[in-house]
Amino acid sequence: MSVNSLRKQSRTDWARVDAMSDEDIDTSDIPPLDEAFFANAQVRLPKRKVPITINLDPEVFVWFRALGTGYQTRINAVLRAYMEAHQG
Predict the structure, then answer these.
(1) Is pLDDT of 57 > 60?
(2) Domain boundary assignment for the chain
(3) H-state helical runs in 1-88
(4) Count of CB atoms situated within 10 Å of the CB of 64
(5) Contacts for 2 with CB less than 8 Å, ≥ 6 apart
(6) Residue scoring higher pLDDT (74 or 4)
(7) Rounded Cα gap, residues 67 and 3, in angstroms
(8) Whether the predicted pLDDT of 6 surpasses 90
(9) Ramachandran quadrant class, 9 (left: phi over 0; alpha: psi -120 to 50; beta: rest)
(10) Please, what's the largest Cα pairwise distance for the chain?
(11) What is the C-alpha to C-alpha distance for residues 60 and 78, in angstroms, rounded to an integer?
């Protein structure tokens, strides 16, 4: 996947989405949340990230940063996928 392919304009009609009311949204495929769901529900907060300094090749840093906001999160996701693939 290239940086240019990630910069393509969205084909979503955001004006139409913004104009929709709650009644216009089809939620028929979502099961109702009953008392049993809430009795077993758990609040899960995301783990706190560890702030670090890391040395990256300039090309790697520029490429991730060019993807826009959230590039540090994407770097974390790549590292997590590598970690999970190599755990015994």
Answers:
(1) yes
(2) 12-85
(3) 3-6, 14-19, 35-40, 58-66, 71-85
(4) 18
(5) none
(6) 74
(7) 6
(8) no
(9) beta
(10) 53
(11) 12
Q: Which residue has the tokens 């809430």?
A: 38
Q: What digits encode the pLDDT tens for the residues 27-45?
A: 999 998 899 999 999 999 9
> Which pLDDT does position 32 carry in this prediction?
87
> In angstroms, rounded to a whole number, what is the distance separating the alpha carbons of residues 71 and 68?
6
- Other residues' Cβ atoms within 10 Å of the Cβ of residue 72: 12
Q: How far from the centroid of its chain's Cα atoms is residue 83's Cα?
A: 18
Report whether 3 contacts 67 (CB < 8 A): yes
Residue 58 has pLDDT above 80, yes or no: yes
Q: What is the pTM of this model?
A: 0.52
